[in-house]
Amino acid sequence: MDERGPLCVGVDPHAALLSSWGLADDIAGLERFTYTVVEALAETVAVFKPQAAFFERFGSRGVAVLERAVADLRAAGGLVVMDAKRGDIGSTMGAYAEAFLRKDSPLFSDALTVSPYLGYGSLKPAVDLARESGAGLFVLALTSNPEGAEVQRAVREDGRTVGATMLAHLAAENAGETPMGSFGAVVGATLGDLSAFDLDINGPLLAPGIGAQGATAADLPAVFGAAVRNVVPNVSRGVLKEGPDAAALRAAADRFADEVRTAIGG
Ligand SMILES: O=C(O)c1cc(=O)[nH]c(=O)n1[C@@H]1O[C@H](COP(=O)(O)O)[C@@H](O)[C@H]1O
Question: Which of 8, 115, 215, 259 could bond 47 through an S-S bridge, CB–CB 3.0 to 4.6 Å?
Fold first, then answer.
């Protein structure tokens, strides 16, 4: 991010975006959309977050497009956060981890989004494999959607919220790592003042919600406070809707990156 700028661009081939790009909602449209984004941004944007669901909806041929995109983005020097939001009992979690975090997997990614809501400990196989492979996780802590609060802000017997407990688990995971550990939290940019939460997890904070969900880069300091220095802001539709013109995609990504720099300094 120091080299390429402070932005994560989401690769989310929504049917509505394919249509606005003049593409059919089929495998050819998916391919054209995805490779246009890859060609336009792979050399300049720091982090990419393909959303697996938008590829899986086309079955194995969609997953093949995802595989190639991940490989091309990584070959061009981008970091790939696979947004698959996996979460299951530990023994099954191990298989999800192998799919995305084993070095020789066709979908190997630099990091994977995971859901801890079967219990943080259920993620252990993914934590272990990420460590072995030099990859990372982004664990859903405080999500950008309003429905998340009923789970994440629920208060436990010890008086802490569930979301705060996930952040504490991540802080423990990253303890002692310099400059920071590889176990990040997902914390929505849409959530307003989060000073009630300790966001100092010594790890990255993936912050979706800028653009289509209404948050702006200017909101980041008020939402994240001192932890803003560890934020990886994600924009998906806000950039993608500018396509299919490659220059327009690049200009949108540059504009969001500039807005983030202005907001957080540096
Ligand atoms: O884990 C995520 O990436 C995620 C977590 C969250 O709390 N909210 C959220 O919007 N996301 C994802 O971030 C992206 C946001 O897309 P836009 O709203 O189009 O910028 C989508 O891929 C969502 O699935």
Answer: 8
Nearest protein CA to atom 22 of ligand 1, as residue: 51
Residue 124 CA: distances (Å) to CA of 90, 178, 205:
7, 22, 20
Residue from 48, 56, 83, 235 whose mutation best tests the ligand 1 pocket (most atoms within 8 A of CB): 83
Looking up tokens 């400990």 gives 121
- Point out the ligand 1 atom lying closest to the alpha carbon of residue 212: 18
- Decide if 166 contacts 231 (C-beta within 8 A): no
Which domains, from first to last, does the chain contain? 8-264 (3.20.20.70)
pLDDT per residue of the chain (266 residues) written in tens, 0 to 9: 999 999 999 999 999 999 999 999 999 999 999 999 999 999 999 999 999 999 999 999 999 999 999 999 999 999 999 999 999 999 999 999 999 999 999 999 999 999 999 999 999 999 999 999 999 999 999 999 999 999 999 999 999 999 999 999 999 999 999 999 999 999 999 999 999 999 999 999 999 999 999 999 999 999 999 999 999 999 999 999 999 999 999 999 999 999 999 999 86
- This complex has an ipTM of 0.99
Which residues are known to be catalytic? Answer: 85
CB-based pocket (< 6 A), ligand 1? 10, 12, 49, 51, 83, 85, 113, 143-145, 186, 188, 208-209, 211-213, 234-238
How many Å apart are CA 205 and CA 221, to the nearest integer?
13
Q: Residue 130 CB: number of other CB atoms within 10 A?
A: 23
Ligand 1 atom closest to Cα of 144? 7
